[in-house]
Design goal:
heterodimer, A: 7 strands, B: mainly alpha, two-stranded antiparallel sheet, 7 helices
Chain lengths: ~160, ~160
């Protein structure tokens, strides 16, 4: 892709983010291209492959075996625990030696997951849009965004 | 002096077969070739029968409606990671409601920009086995549907 095409694509991608999530405009750094290869839950638990979705009749999606095939707070906690995030916290502050995930949700259950970076910022995969680094969690809160912050899940860091 | 080639078959065009063979050879694996060699005529020439499906046509109003619905759907669901929130969106449901005329439009959209169109395609092709069966990820599923679309001449 030429430099000109790259810039043009960046502008289009930024417009998509602004269309869907206006509150985050000006508060993020783009860190990837758009993709439907993985979703925010996959990205948050640092797997980065597959689109986690409870089993349905459509091929191509993935759901960890042994977990009830439905999307709700209970099954999502089981998925998080499967990847080591079995401690719940109510603090967004970085904790030395721990990886932390923020869980957003609405009346239908969890809607989004952001993982904490070593510098205290957060990293999110925005649906089928781009990955971003954002300094606050509140920029994704709202009825037309991801609802409210529900809780934080953490595990002993495997990166340090 | 330029060389000339003599052809034994009866066709008035100099070489109708190689193009057909190329098309047959490039057909997606697993798909039935549209080319059939039915028999030989009495002079011994091959009789070639093409059974290509008719190219699907879409009207301008259908195209305009589709683009409007896609735009709305993307704006309101592209940031969601949960399939239910995407496919139950009213715009997505209206696209399914357009019926079979939405199939080529969806495939063209999917070709230019991959998305979660599998649910709609599955609903619009009821009774057919999913071409994406056995796909391990969404890239493979997308490619399988596009290959199906080319074979059916939707693309």
């Amino acid at each position: 892709m030429s430099e000109e095409s790259r810039i043009y694509q960046d502008i289009l991608d930024a417009a998509d983010v602004a269309d869907s999530l206006p509150n985050i405009v000006g508060k993020y750094i783009r860190t990837s291209d758009p993709s439907i290869k993985y979703n925010c839950l996959v990205y948050a638990v640092r797997v980065e492959w597959g689109w986690f979705e409870p089993p349905n009749h459509l091929p191509g999606y993935y759901w960890p075996p042994g977990i009830d095939p439905e999307w709700n707070d209970r099954t999502v906690k089981q998925v998080l625990a499967r990847f080591g995030y079995n401690e719940i916290s109510d603090s967004p502050e970085p904790e030395d030696g721990y990886d932390k995930i923020a869980i957003y949700g609405d009346k239908d259950g969890p809607t989004h997951f952001a993982r904490q970076l070593p510098n205290g910022n957060w990293s999110s995969k925005l649906g089928e849009l781009i990955d971003v680094e954002h300094t606050t969690l509140e920029c994704l809160v709202g009825d037309d965004h991801y609802g409210n912050l529900l809780y934080y899940a953490k595990r002993k860091s495997i990166q340090r | 002096m330029p060389q000339t080639t003599k052809y034994r078959h009866r066709s008035p065009s100099p070489d109708p077969y190689p193009r057909a063979w190329r098309k047959s050879a490039s057909y997606p694996s697993g798909e039935a070739s549209p080319l059939r060699i039915s028999n030989k005529d009495r002079c011994g020439s091959l009789k070639v029968v093409f059974t290509l499906p008719k190219k699907q046509r879409v009207t301008a109003p259908e195209q305009a409606l589709f683009q409007k619905l896609v735009s709305q759907w993307r704006k309101e669901t592209a940031h969601h990671s949960i399939l239910t929130k995407k496919v139950m969106h009213p715009a997505y449901q209206r696209i399914i409601g357009m019926g079979p005329s939405a199939i080529p439009l969806i495939l063209r959209e999917m070709k230019s920009r991959p998305g979660h169109w599998f649910w709609a395609l599955d609903a619009l092709t009821q009774g057919e086995a999913s071409p994406a069966a056995g796909s391990n990820n969404l890239d493979e599923a997308t490619e399988a549907w596009l290959a199906w679309g080319r074979a059916k001449r939707y693309l």
